[in-house]
Amino acid sequence: MRRNDKKPDPAELGKLALAAKAADDRQGSAFEAERGAEIEVLEKVIELARPGLPSIMNATPGFPTKAVELLPDAACQDDRLWILEDGAFAQWGVFTPGQPYRLALADVCDGWSIAAVVNALAMLFRKQIIGRTAPAIEAEARAAKLTAIAKLLEE
């Protein structure tokens, strides 16, 4: 035994081992709770976004349903996140070239931040609002004029 070493204490070692196991269990439980909360938040985000999803969808070759590239800025095609018309998430051609691969919400939470998903959806909805407002106003004005003309023609 070295001079500076304390005499081994088997009782202390046992206590340390139990404390380490408890810390490990606590951390595992906390990570599971955090993961569950992330999935729950993402579920709520999709439910909030669902009414507006059809307005941002595009017909996409190879997808069996309409979709929009939600996070298109990834350098690698396989890292891009898509959202489908039904609110499911997908990646393009990850396992089947040219075909969408649906992702579980847990996979989305693992690969992308919830904030990035929310921000991307908000940006797409804002673009739709801005891009569709002026044409809607013009169409409403034209409809009113045409209705007035139709009434004049009835007389």
Structure explained in plain terms:
This protein is α+β, with helices and mostly antiparallel strands. It has one domain. It is 59% helix and 11% strand. It has four helices and four strands, in the order H-H-E-E-E-E-H-H. It has helices spanning 10-49, 53-56, 105-111, 114-154; strands at residues 67-71, 81-84, 89-92, 100-103. It has a four-stranded antiparallel β-sheet with strand order 1-2-3-4. It is elongated, with a radius of gyration of 28 Å. The N and C termini lie far apart (115 Å). The relative contact order is 0.09.
Task: Indicate the topology.
Blueprint: H1 10-49, H2 53-56, E1 67-71, E2 81-84, E3 89-92, E4 100-103, H3 105-111, H4 114-154
Antiparallel strand pairs: 1-2, 2-3, 3-4
Distance separating the two termini: 115 Å
Strand order of the largest sheet: 1-2-3-4
What's the mean pLDDT score?
Answer: 85
- The tally of beta strands, per DSSP, is 4
Poorly predicted runs of 5 or more residues: none
Q: What sequence of helices (H) and strands (E) makes up the elements?
A: HHEEEEHH
Strand content: 5-15%
Largest sheet: 4 strands, antiparallel
Number of helices: 4
Structural class based on helices, strands and sheet pairing: alpha+beta
What characteristic shape results from the CA principal axes?
elongated
Radius of gyration, CA atoms, in whole angstroms: 28 Å
The number of domains: 1
Helix content: 55-70%
